[in-house]
Amino acid sequence: ALGLALSLSVLWGGNPVAVKAGLEDCPPLRLGWMRFVLGGLIVLAAAAFRRQSLRVERHEWAALIGLGCLFASQLAFMNIGQNHTSAGHAAVIMSAYPLWTSVLAHFLVPGDRLTRPRVLGAIVAYSGVVVVFITSLRGEGGTLLGDGLLVVSSLLLGGRQIVLSRSAQGIAVEKLLLAQAGVGTLSFLAASALFETD
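-> structure tokens emitted (198 positions)
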């Protein structure tokens, strides 16, 4: 379990670097829909291997579309924000999403309260984001616009974790992942065609 957690942390830490590298050759929205297509194909393959039914029940549609819209919004802020700041700034700001999850859970999840130690921990952790913003104001490594967009993305990601966790109680994980990939692909493909040039 420890090895898996460390591996996932390394992959998560490399995500902003990989996105920043991809942005060298591709505008943000186009990069997004291409990633969603690849991710969706992997989820489809995993669902086929596990023989998981992907039939969407009537009561699941609203949750799946809502989650997909939240996902697309969060990734749009992330990709566009990363296009305007450094990979290092993106890694620090996006790593703050568990803090947003804790704060939002206090208001949205019954029984999940912010205790004094959790509040103190959140204040200490948020100080790292404040340091990043101070360096942006000085023009060191990022821009205020890019960092601001990433803060919104981090906040949305924290909220998405709560929605995803609650939705996974009654909807198969493969359906949740495919809904995000599907809504993300369609919305990013349309926005890319309208706003991005070759």
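Residues 33 and 186 are 8 Å apart (CA to CA).
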